[in-house]
Design a protein that fits this description.
It contains five helices and nine strands. The protein is of the alpha/beta class. A five-stranded parallel β-sheet has the order 4-3-7-8-9, with helices on both faces. The protein has a two-stranded antiparallel ribbon with strand order 1-2. A two-stranded antiparallel ribbon has the order 5-6. It is globular and about 40 Å long.
Length: 176
């Protein structure tokens, strides 16, 4: 029997949760995908494959992006920088405010985590409106690193998040 593709694993295992995190939002939950070892391995390999040899480190976006970023860092033999919500990082940080589909928030990172000029593969679970990934790109570049590409497990095409990432090499595994 042929192995399951990343797209098939996401379609089979992800769950739709209405009215989360607030009324009117339809949330696509990928945690059941992460809980399946074979699916996580397939998704990890599929996320990093188009970027082989082009990145020096992974940056993962809080919180579910950490799961995929850590898995990708391990699979590629690279390190990981974490892009976090305020108050979670203990040293000097860069901060970026941004809007998302149901409010606004801030992201932060340690700018000394990677060497200057590091080529970073940015990984998150979902591309929705693009605010989180656009803010993450800004932080990475302000830290003196470059974006080698962006990889996401799921893209919600109707929210047009791609338009906030012009000129970026964006790889999404599953589009709804």
């Amino acid at each position: 029997m042929p192995s399951e593709t990343a797209q098939d694993a996401i379609a089979r295992l992800s769950r739709v949760v209405p009215d989360f995190p607030r009324d009117g939002v339809i949330f696509r939950d990928l945690t059941p995908v992460f809980a399946d070892g074979a699916a996580l391995r397939t998704i990890t390999d599929s996320l990093i494959e188009p970027f082989a040899g082009t990145f020096d480190a992974i940056a993962g976006v809080e919180a579910r992006g950490f799961v995929l970023a850590a898995s990708a860092a391990y699979a590629s033999g690279q390190g990981i920088a974490m892009i976090r919500k305020p108050g979670k990082l203990p040293r000097a940080v860069l901060s970026q405010d941004y809007d998302l589909e149901y409010g606004s928030t801030t992201l932060q990172l340690h700018p000394d985590e990677l060497a200057p000029g590091a080529r970073v593969l940015l990984i998150d679970d979902v591309l929705a409106t693009g605010g989180t990934l656009a803010a993450s790109c800004s932080l990475v570049e302000r830290a003196g690193w470059s974006i080698a590409g962006i990889a996401v497990a799921l893209e919600i095409a109707a929210l047009h998040g791609r338009t906030k990432l012009p000129g970026r090499f964006l790889h999404s595994l599953f589009t709804i």
